[in-house]
Design goal:
single chain, elongated, 39% helix, mainly alpha, 2 strands, 120 residues
Length: 120
């Protein structure tokens, strides 16, 4: 489906300002397109629930819908916009006191560092 066709569909999107929504809007603006969602909500689980009921289309990070895609409860739409890659960063000051919980979180992040998640 072309992006021009897709933007005419009923869209359920996260609130403005979410990183992946911002990226979608940027990609659309590069093509002089705009999207007008029928629903804007901050809860991704609610969006997924509504998508499973057939209420429209959305633009969500793969990890949020991975299980639903695997179980074929949702489908991925192939379109002509480039693949979006998002990155996360964890910053902290080494010379400042770090709580036990923060240390554990840092260890978890290091444990998953560099691991890519893909759909089976």
């Amino acid at each position: 489906m072309t992006i021009q066709e897709l933007v005419e569909k009923p869209f359920l999107l996260t609130e403005q300002g979410a990183a992946y929504r911002y990226e979608l809007e940027r990609l659309l603006a590069d093509r002089d397109l705009e999207i007008f969602p029928i629903l804007e909500i901050g809860n991704t689980e609610t969006i997924i629930h509504l998508l499973k009921k057939g209420m429209g289309f959305s633009f969500l990070p793969e990890f949020t819908v991975r299980e639903e895609l695997r179980k074929k409860r949702l489908s991925e739409i192939q379109t002509d916009i480039p693949t979006v890659e998002m990155y996360s960063q964890l910053l902290y000051c080494r010379n400042k006191w770090v709580t036990q919980e923060m240390e554990r979180f840092i260890e978890l992040v290091k444990q998953y560092e560099g691991q890519e998640t893909k759909i089976d």
